[in-house]
Sequence to fold (234 residues):
Amino acid sequence: AAGVIQSPRHLIKEKRETATLKCYPIPRHDTVYWYQQGPGQDPQFLISFYEKMQSDKGSIPDRFSAQQFSDYHSELNMSSLELGDSALYFCASSTRQGAREGYTFGSGTRLTVV
Amino acid sequence: AQTVTQSQPEMSVQEAETVTLSCTYDTSENNYYLFWYKQPPSRQMILVIRQEAYKQQNATENRFSVNFQKAAKSFSLKISDSQLGDTAMYFCAFMKPWGAGGTSYGKLTFGQGTILTVHP
Fold:
């Protein structure tokens, strides 16, 4: 079965650079969620999209932006990177009603800022 | 706002034995969903089991079962016949249902996690 695809798997950036993370949801899933997991921490909700519109926003820095495109894939853009942005970034997808079943996570993008 | 607390940072168990991981939460909602996710060393987040708050019957999935105590706001995970492949970080998570107010539908609030090690 198709899963949530995230790219790249690993990314190394220098401070103050920009990074773009991509997420391709499971076919026919209309909702995408982004989470950030720092080292040794639990995942923190960043932002979600439903039918290409932002549906909820969490603790996402102003330096970050995201969008969902017409094909339902989503991109998380991170500018002016800081050392503290080093983390595992997860994307997950579901149908809106299907979220209650527990949605499917991608394998994550490990971002290292040096 | 909802909070989820896992008070056991680490647990260990012998292979084939049973272990219970604890989770408590705080919410003013009457209807919601609770989940246990497993994160093995590969860091993949894997859904283990889910519980709907309006169902009194405890959920079970093969060797995994929960003890859901709504009044006590407790949601523990029992793993029977532990296997080496169960070694992972386990996260308890809370989801507010759509229509409960605001736009937080589908957002998961996680506990701090419990590292489970299964020894041979």
Summary: The mean pLDDT of chain B is 93. The longest strand of chain B covers residues 88-95. The two ends of chain B are 41 Å apart (CA to CA).
